[in-house]
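Protocol step 6 of 9: fold each sequence in the batch and record its structure tokens directly after the sequence line. For illustration, a two-sequence batch is reproduced in full.

Sequence one:
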Amino acid sequence: MLIFGVEAQNKYSISGKLVLPNKEDEYEFSPRTIWLKDSIGNTIGGTADSALFFNFQGLGNGKYILALDTEQSFFVTKPFDTVLVVNNNSIRNIELKLETVCTVFTEDTANNDIAKGHIRLIMEPGSVMFKYSKKQKRIQKKYKLEYYWSGCYRFTHYSCLKSYNRVIFSYLDNKYGAKWRTKVIDKVVGLN
């Protein structure tokens, strides 16, 4: 846990954990910048650790606002701020529930892609890029789809990639039955 000191005579703390609605998105949020503002506007900055825990120590009695930097990366959450009052006791084990925001790949994006005839299957981030075999090229042509590789990192929440692909899966199932699922590369997000 990270520790942030303010003044030696202050002895209270505010600690807790950031919680995401989708466990599979958790690693994407570390580290995250968290801000704690006191009642006169002083800001104490800090970072959630790799397990998404935060701990502000050395606090005195008073009102504090806890906020998260939501624009830190492509992994967007809805903004929030939480008012906390320290009154002769530390505040521990706070769970701040974050709400995932899908920005790049959404169900709407998938439906728009289908309407345009641009059928993409998003591949697992970090999967090794490979040269398509002639068989895979035939499969892409037969099912009128393409594989979309994001590279070695996730540029949006994993849950968003799965939601996008679920819409595409449904479209392909309706058009071709489930047989296409056994033909495409097994590194498609949410396929297995």
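Sequence two, same batch, same settings:
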Amino acid sequence: MPSKFTWFALGAAAGAAAALLYAPRPGVETRALVGEKANAVCGEARDWGAATSINASDAYRKAQDRGSVAYQNAQVKGREFAKNAQEKTSDLYNTAAARVQEKIHGVSPAFSGSNDDLREKIEAARQRIAAQVAANAEESQVQAADDVVETSAAEAPAAEAPAPEPAGAHAAAPAADSSEEGKAE
């Protein structure tokens, strides 16, 4: 849709044409007057076009210069931001690493002390187990000797049985033999 200026210009041209047609001057004078006015308007349009072209070129150069400066400023600020971010990240990393190292050093001695206590407890448990195993072995040998004596006494005929011995004396002798056998092995 045409702008208001376009309608105004069209109206002015129509008015000028109507004025020329109804002008009180003769045609030669009117045509000369119209030609002069047309040349004047054409010259003004050329001057305005040249000025506009120059102004547009200046505006373009100024905008380009401003854009270049803004781009350079953005680059500088971007580098500064990246550098600051890297320094802060490095500082945070170093701080965290130092804290972790402190915690590690604080925990290590606790483990070392606990390890010594734990080793002592394990050694004591080994000794108790060894003593229990030895006691169980002796008890098993005594029980085995008693079982052998009882079995051989039950198998022997009653007539051939030797004179009765006290039960404690007979059981003690084989137990001593079996404990000596265990030591020899």
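Proceed to step 7 once all outputs are recorded. Observation for sequence two: The helical segments are 4-21, 27-155, 167-184.
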